[in-house]
Every structure is written in C-alpha cells, then in structure tokens.
Sequence to fold (387 residues):
Amino acid sequence: MKKVVRVLVDPPLSGYENMSRDEALLEMGFPDAPLTLRFFEWEEETLSVGRFQKTAEMDFSYLEAKNIPLVRRPTGGRAILHDKEVTFSLFIPTSSFEKHTFYYKELQKVLTRMMEKMGIKVDEKTESGIYTSSPYCFSINVAHEITIGGRKIIGVAQARGERGNLFQASFILEGNREEVASCFKKKEKIQKELENSLLALCEVLSPLPEKRKIYRLLLESLREEWGVEIEEGEWSAEELEKAEELFSTKYYPGSWYHTER
Amino acid sequence: MNIPDNLLYTREHFWVKKGDLATCGITDYAQNELGDVIFVELPEEGKKVKQGDKIGEVESIKTVSYLYAPLSGEVMEVNRELDKRPELINQSPYGEGWICKIQPENEEEFKNLMNKEEYEVFLKTQ
Fold:
C-alpha cells in the first residue's frame, strides 16, 4: 500500500500559534499520525529565530516600533522575517536515526521538481556555501538547500524528536532586503550580504503564481518524487490539545522562551 | 566506526560507562550521523531523571536533536566544557565529549542496555 501524506492547510495564525502547532506535530506524531505536510501563513509579519540562536543581535527597538513579533522555532538554523512567502512544515514519522542530511536530500529532490514545474532550474547543490556568522538564514546556504546561482530561495531547518523529524521551510516570494536587515543591529552588513545571498521568486518569475498553485505544485512533486498518495486531512483533537498546551506553557506572547538566549 | 567493548549502549545512541557514577555521552555512530555539533543544551545538575526522559538537545547543521536519559537517577555532573567547545562531541565522543554523570537509582535498568555486540546488530537495523 502506498504511503499517505496528510495535508493540513491552516488559516493565517500568529507566530506563537504556528510554532505551537509545529511542535505539537513533532511531539505527537508517531505512531498515531501519518506523514504530514502543513501549509501555514502568518497573520502579521514575524521574525522567527532558531532553537538555540542568540537574540542579542536583533534590534528590539526596531521590532517594537514596527510591531514585529519575535518567535523561537523548534528547529535549528538562523532568523527569518516571514512576510511574503510560502511557509510549510513536514513531519516525517520515523524511529530510525538517519544521517542529518538524509531527509534534506529527499526534500531537495521534491523542491527541485517543484521549481522545474515553474520552469525554473535550480543549482544541483551538494556542498555548503561560504560560512558567515550572519544571524540571518538567507545570508548563508548549506548542502541540499534550494539555491539559484548560489542565492538561496528556500530555507529549510530540522528538529528530530523521539517520534520523527520535523522540517520547517520558507519559500521567499518577495523579499525586502532593507527591511530584513533593519531587524538587526548590524543592518548595513546584513543588507549587503543579502544582495548576493537571497533570491525571491518574483526576481525570476513574473507574474507570481498564486500561493494555492504553489501548494498544488509542491504536492504533485511530493507524489511523483516519493511515490506517495496525498490526502487532505484535519488536525486530531489530541494534536490541537497539545498545541494549546505548548502555547500556554512555552510559546505565548512575551514568553521567556523566545528571548532566553 | 568506534564501539568500545567496555561500554553499554541505548537505542537512542547514548553510551554508558558503569562506575560509582554512570558516565554517558553520544556514540561515535550518532555523532557521525548528526554532523558538526554547534550547540549542546546540557541536563541540569541535580535533576532527577527517568530512563528515556528527554534531558537535553544538540544542534548540528540546522538540525536540533533531543537527548534521552540512558538511566534513571540524579544528574550529578555535566560537562561544562561543551558549552564552549561543542565540537568535542564530534572529536572525542567517548572521551572529552562526555555529556553527564548520573547516580543510578535502579541497577536493574542496566539490563535494558546493549553490549557492544548487541549495539552492532542494532545499528544494522538503522
């Protein structure tokens, strides 16, 4: 029997709710939940930081002035300003301990195929780019991320739990480098880096496809590349209960968790 | 791959060295699968843990992985050097990269751990 991918399409939510839901997928997954692809949106522009990222480099006065919330992700990596993008998470139930690049490679195949369906050829990327200490996700690229001419267009990060692996991905549709850089104390340096390291879809494809079309292309690519069946699904009551618990104990607005480092 | 024969192993790829306190860390197999470790969140000293509890996290390249207690007991000591040099987990998983020392509360739990040969067989299923 073919593996089934449960697809969840959430309405726009706060960053706090979005991260609570993603962590609930990671905590509740195996063996009760199937492989799950979740599309989600942000009800307001939000800065997310990696699980262990230090927030000392953020410009909190700018974030406050612009009412940009800061939320900590359950996955690793560096900060992302979520605005005009397609965001999705993928939970893969597994009890095996694969090499950290194993699913990155598998996801790279899917995302490469999705880009091809839009008529865009991406780099065949197997090595990491030049390392910098920049706090922004799109300032650097690592092996198996999606880049075009060395510039990153989709950022992916991972968390491994007892029940499976959670991936979070951000596909930039339109990117305002100046605004992104303004979220950090070293604004000029980051803005300069982003000129050469970040690419938005609108810079290689016009007009921009509707988000729903991108969702459909990603699902088609997943089905073709992994040989899975796609089924629109729903959250279970247990998963939503877990998400609410995580929200009230860890991800609520103003929580110590977001700025603890 | 290095699997010392004087240690015991968990299914979550922790090694345990028996003694007055049980010293533990991540196996050579696990550090290789994780890739370059850039951050370790260590267990709290004095914390009482149960076998299989989540006791910490490590971040390698854009990947966060949980650490699970190999035994029940009290965490008596943690390797603070890993705060400054998390790469020790990759460089010396059975030596300088040890993670914590636990005062075991139930000797019976050692029976749940694998010896070298059993761990080798287990790895073939991974």
Observations:
- The longest strand of chain B covers residues 54-60.
